């Protein structure tokens, strides 16, 4: 899994939005005073709509389609996902995988480190290759994709929705892979923005 922060809104945009309500621009310092204002209004007073002015765009690579389904439940976000319709040719070109060759197979699947599950995923890869080589179109062949099949996406989310995501998905009850994603996303946030999300994060029991 790899997460890259591609773009984020400068934090002073959120402070400006808050001060628009009260026309208190003359009290802005462009620094710590404005950061404290955002925390006080958005987090402590729960006027969280002001956080929607802060937007983050991440490039997320090497996650499973199982995780992608979980991510799609967070609907106040924009997802642009790698198309299997156009990219299954990558798999079609490969030789069949040995059932215990986890290293090679990991180019295409997310490993769980459960031997039974990972071996079943490799069998599914080989079955998918056979279907592709039979002449079936990608649109039909993709129905054979295992949930472990890797994908990638560009994900854009505002700070209010990101707080919700991190609160739910950093919890120990979350799917292990999306929990890892939550912590990786938090690590990629700009240093000056992280204070807005600290209370959303659960302890990392896996570290």
What does this 3D model show about the protein?
This protein has ten helices and four strands. The protein has a domain at 85-150. A four-stranded antiparallel sheet has the order 1-2-4-3. By secondary structure, it is α+β, with helices and mostly antiparallel strands. The model has no long low-confidence stretch (mean pLDDT 94). It is elongated, with a radius of gyration of 21 Å.
- Intertermini distance: 16 Å
Structural class: alpha+beta
| Major β-sheet annotation | 4 strands, antiparallel
Order of helices and strands: EHHEHEHHHHHEHH
Question: What proportion of the residues is helical, as a percent range?
Answer: 40-55%
If strands are numbered along the chain, what order do they take across the biggest sheet?
A: 1-2-4-3
Poorly predicted regions are none
State the total count of DSSP E strands.
4
Radius of gyration: 21 Å
Helix tally equals 10
**Overall pLDDT level:** 94
Quick one: overall form? elongated
Strand content: 5-15%
What keyword list fits this structure?
207 residues, 4-stranded antiparallel β-sheet, alpha+beta, single chain, 10 helices, 44% helix
In short:
The protein has 207 residues and is α+β, with helices and mostly antiparallel strands.
């Amino acid at each position: 899994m790899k997460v890259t922060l591609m773009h984020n809104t400068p934090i002073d945009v959120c402070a400006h939005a808050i001060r628009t309500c009260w026309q208190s621009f003359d009290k802005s310092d462009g620094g710590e005073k404005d950061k404290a204002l955002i925390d006080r209004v958005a987090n402590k007073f729960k006027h969280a709509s002001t956080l929607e002015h802060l937007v983050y765009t991440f490039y997320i690579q090497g996650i499973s389609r199982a995780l992608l389904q979980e991510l799609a439940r967070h609907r106040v976000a924009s997802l642009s996902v790698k198309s299997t319709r156009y990219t299954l040719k990558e798999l079609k070109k490969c030789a069949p995988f040995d059932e215990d060759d986890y290293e090679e197979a990991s180019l295409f699947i997310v490993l769980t480190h459960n031997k039974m599950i990972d071996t079943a995923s490799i069998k599914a890869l080989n079955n998918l290759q056979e279907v592709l080589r039979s002449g079936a179109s990608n649109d039909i062949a993709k129905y054979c994709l295992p949930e472990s099949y890797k994908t990638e996406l560009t994900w854009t989310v505002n700070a209010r929705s990101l707080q919700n995501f991190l609160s739910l998905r950093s919890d120990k009850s979350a799917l292990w892979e999306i929990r890892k994603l939550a912590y990786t996303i938090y690590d990629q946030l700009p240093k000056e923005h992280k204070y807005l999300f600290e209370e959303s994060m659960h302890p990392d029991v896996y570290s």
